[in-house]
Design a protein that fits this description.
It contains three helices and eight strands; from the N terminus they run βααβββββββα. The chain is α+β, with helices and mostly antiparallel strands and 141 residues long. The chain has a single domain, classed as Hotdog Thioesterase (Thiol Ester Dehydrase, Chain A), CATH 3.10.129. The two termini are 13 Å apart.
């Protein structure tokens, strides 16, 4: 399993009238988590795009447990629980406040899409090579 964490402080403009992080902004936090997870592998979305690979979201599920509040420092934990190298990738996300309380959890499914051919494709080998070591040990256990 691959796990990455990053932190985001809830900004005033992201909140609703009650000072809660607006529900629609959770997807943006998921996106930051995904981008940083890939960056922590030494790879970037930009590199994927330069290779002609797009990653559109095909499904988003989100469960709201507790509110994130204005000025809270949120830890975004992003996990890849499976690696099959196919055309779909599923990111599991958990958001925690500074008291380590679970606020929100979600799953975002994306597909690898060949921009030139306009069709789904398998995960690029370069990304697979970066992720594989995190799953190799589990397969040996």
């Amino acid at each position: 399993m691959y796990v990455s964490t990053t932190q985001i402080r809830v900004r005033y403009g992201e909140t609703d009238q009650m000072g809660y992080l607006y529900y629609g902004n959770y997807a943006l936090y998921y996106e930051v988590g995904r981008a940083e997870a890939i960056r922590q592998l030494g790879f970037t979305y930009r590199q994927l795009e330069e290779m002609g690979v797009m990653m559109p979201v095909v499904e988003l599920r989100s469960q709201y447990l507790r509110p994130a509040l204005y000025d809270d420092l949120i830890t975004v934990k992003t996990m890849l629980k499976e690696l099959d190298g196919g055309s779909k990738i599923e990111f599991h996300v958990e958001l925690f406040n500074e008291h380590e309380q679970l606020l929100n959890k979600g799953v975002v499914s994306l597909v690898f899409y060949d921009a030139k051919e306009r069709k789904k494709m398998n995960m690029p080998q370069e990304l697979m090579d970066r992720l594989e070591p995190f799953f190799r040990k589990e397969s040996l256990d």
